[in-house]
Automatic annotation (TrEMBL):
<dbReference type="InterPro" id="IPR001360">
    <property type="entry name" value="Glyco_hydro_1"/>
</dbReference>
<dbReference type="GO" id="GO:0008422">
    <property type="term" value="F:beta-glucosidase activity"/>
</dbReference>
<protein>
    <recommendedName>
        <fullName>Beta-glucosidase</fullName>
    </recommendedName>
</protein>
<dbReference type="GO" id="GO:0005975">
    <property type="term" value="P:carbohydrate metabolic process"/>
</dbReference>
<dbReference type="Pfam" id="PF00232">
    <property type="entry name" value="Glyco_hydro_1"/>
</dbReference>
<keyword id="KW-0378">Hydrolase</keyword>
<keyword id="KW-0732">Signal</keyword>
<feature type="signal peptide">
    <location>
        <begin position="1"/>
        <end position="24"/>
    </location>
</feature>
<comment type="similarity">
    <text>Belongs to the glycosyl hydrolase 1 family.</text>
</comment>
<dbReference type="InterPro" id="IPR033132">
    <property type="entry name" value="GH_1_N_CS"/>
</dbReference>
<dbReference type="InterPro" id="IPR017853">
    <property type="entry name" value="GH"/>
</dbReference>
Length: 519
């Protein structure tokens, strides 16, 4: 998660303890309070879902096992190791593929309601279409059943960036309209096979991140960009991000419309799309900077939010990007407007926005936005700094964002699908010490308090998913940072340990202040 946002920032300003298998975990010198806090889940609506998230390529591992086909991330990490901070791959990840039963037990032990995960397209269709991999289907059937048997609700994403390499080679992936029908068929199979048990579907996770990092800056697979942006072998940063973003939306619409017409009445589930964004504050009180902050929200969030709510792109994007921004047909527009039952929103931090002058040559997503982003004003940081120089703790941002969506986007049902913080990996300190992630607890508590305030003000927030369940492969940062509430010991057989934040979550999730915690 971390690299996605640091990549965006670089572009836009220049984004019971269980161990592996059946092995017992070592004792942890951690002494959480035994009384539940007065700030706990009972303050939220009774139907509110508290969950935690993961994604297939980041955690599953087993990249070459049981018939899984290669994704663009498999190829990218091997062909461009220099673009991964520690030259690592997701071949092993957190080995969730082999340890899912004990990992799901940990989710249950924390006291959560739901587990968010994604399906690896190439574990189901190794070549993206055609022959089905029965062992892949068996794995996800078993995973879903395990989630349900632990009284957890599965919250399932169809596409979290691990696009089939075979389709990338065949027609250029999301640069081609061919992808819409292939994605629809993949989604159809998943609904038919898993939809009797899955009641929350997400079609696409973070189309912005996929489009910008993959096709504007080249920092993510498939690593396409213009030569004037970075060292990519091919690409056009002035137009490809918008083409890819367009077909991501059309693929979403095709898959969502299919679900609503063919499966929803019988399976009684819901479907949506998950969008990331920062919040943006004007750097000064000038009209130009206030407009810049609104424009940044349009480019980050409105690019994909306005089509699924209103059927078209933001006017600021149409004005700035011009003919490079694709157009929707009337039928596509109407389909998009009725395509979601909920909106997934991923929020991490907030930036200052300052008006920037137009650039006539070497156009990119960031120059089109006409905004300069920064994290300080008059020498003062926007929020509490963290180990990561792009992420400052600014809890007010989640409240401001929720209210913005309520006021500007017809107050849709919202699931906060990602919210969290990373710490730099430091293998030189003892595991016991590494588990004491007090900064993550402060981050969670402060954001949940402001989210509750938004709910009290009428925002239709239906659930909150902390990011992430365990430490894992963090895209271009590899294994150099840790977002997890569960510590993965990379030097000792990937053993799992609950961090302090997991204990805090367990305490928070207790409704009765007289209950005590048992571990």
């Amino acid at each position: 998660m971390r690299t996605k946002i640091v990549s965006l920032l670089c572009l836009l300003s220049l984004a019971t303890l269980l161990a592996s298998g059946t092995e017992s975990a070592s004792p942890i010198s951690l002494k959480p309070s035994h009384k539940a806090s007065s700030f706990n889940r009972s303050l939220f609506p009774s139907t509110f879902l508290f969950g935690i998230g993961s994604s297939a390529y980041q955690v599953e591992g087993a990249a070459n096992e049981d018939g899984r086909g290669p994704s663009i991330w498999d190829n990218f990490t091997k062909e461009h190791p220099e673009k991964i901070w520690d030259q690592s791959t997701g071949d092993v990840g957190a080995d969730f593929y082999h340890r899912y039963k004990s990992d799901i037990k940990l989710v249950k032990d924390i006291g959560l309601d739901s587990f968010r995960f994604s399906i690896s397209w190439t574990r189901i269709f190794p070549k993206g279409k055609g022959a089905v991999n029965g062992l892949g289907v068996e794995f996800y059937n078993n995973l879903i059943d395990e989630v349900l048997s632990n009284d957890l609700k599965p919250f399932v994403t169809l596409f979290h960036w691990d696009f089939p390499q075979a389709l990338e080679d065949e027609y250029g992936g999301f640069r081609s309209s061919n992808v819409v029908e292939d994605f629809r068929k993949y989604a159809d199979f998943c609904y038919k096979t898993f939809g009797d048990r899955v009641k929350h579907w997400v079609t696409i996770n973070e189309p912005l991140s996929y489009s910008i990092n993959g096709y504007n800056g080249g920092t993510f697979a498939p690593s396409r960009c213009s030569k004037y942006v970075a060292n990519c072998s091919a690409g056009d940063s002035s137009i490809e991000p918008y083409i890819v973003g367009h077909y991501l939306l059309l693929a979403h619409e095709a898959a969502a419309t299919l679900y609503k017409k063919k499966y929803q009445a019988r399976q009684k589930g819901q479907i949506g799309i998950t969008l990331p964004t920062h919040f943006f504050l004007p750097k000064s009180n000038s009209v130009a900077d206030k407009q810049a902050a609104n424009r940044a929200l349009d480019f980050f969030f409105g690019w994909h939010a306005r089509p699924v709510i209103f059927g078209d792109y933001p006017e600021s994007m149409k004005s700035s990007v011009g003919s490079r921004l694709p157009k929707f047909t009337k039928a596509q527009s109407e389909g998009l407007k009725s395509s979601i039952d909920f909106l997934g929103v991923n929020y991490y931090t907030t930036y200052y926005a300052e008006n920037a002058a137009p650039v006539r040559a070497n156009r990119t997503f960031n120059t089109d936005m006409l905004v300069t982003l920064s994290t300080e004003k008059n020498g003062v940081a926007i929020g509490t700094p963290t180990d990561l120089d792009w992420l400052y703790i600014y809890p007010k941002g989640i409240h401001l964002l929720m209210v913005h969506i309520k006021d500007k986007y017809k107050n849709p049902n919202i699931y906060v699908n990602e919210n969290g913080i990373a710490e730099a990996r430091n293998d030189s300190i003892p595991v016991d010490e590494a588990l004491n992630d007090g900064i993550r607890i402060r981050y969670l508590k402060s954001h949940l308090r402001l989210l509750l305030q938004a709910i009290k003000e009428g925002v239709n927030v239906k659930g909150y998913y902390a990011w992430s369940f365990s430490d894992s492969f963090e895209w271009d940062a590899g294994y150099t940072v840790r977002f997890g509430h569960v510590y993965v010991d990379y030097n000792n057989n990937l053993k799992r340990y609950l961090k302090s934040s997991a204990f805090w979550l367990k305490k928070f999730l207790l409704n009765d202040n007289n209950k005590v915690l048992s571990y």
